[in-house]
Design a protein that fits this description.
6-stranded mixed beta sheet; Transcription Regulator spoIIAA; globular; alpha/beta; 146 residues
Length: 146
Amino acid sequence: MEDRVGLDRAYGLESGSFVPEGDTLYVAGTKNLRDVWDDLKIPFGLTSWADRYQQADRVLDASPQIRRVGGHSLGGAVALELAKNHPGRNLQTETYGAPVFSFTGSDHRHRHWLDPVAALDFGAQTTLPENPRSYQKLGARKGGSK
């Protein structure tokens, strides 16, 4: 499944987390006012206190087959935090427009050139988009679980 499809499905669910058959967990970005509040926790290192993180963490705990986490925006920050907090799982992350501050390069972090949310992720792969907040074109280039 392409990442864009998995993320679309995650956005369609109240929990914001979607696990298709396979080894990938997809985590949606900001969808409601609670998520906006949770976005403010990210710069203070409190991503694990966010509701989206708590929901995705429960899904991860209940799904031992997951080896990969993909997320957009808030979901990207959640994916990175899940990988950090579950080192024994060796989770691979694929993020799109994640609000992180980093100079370390990664082939698995993506951002659009004009995206204000991911502007400080200097290590992400950068592209020129039509819509700087969209993961659709970037997610179509990256495959998820097969």
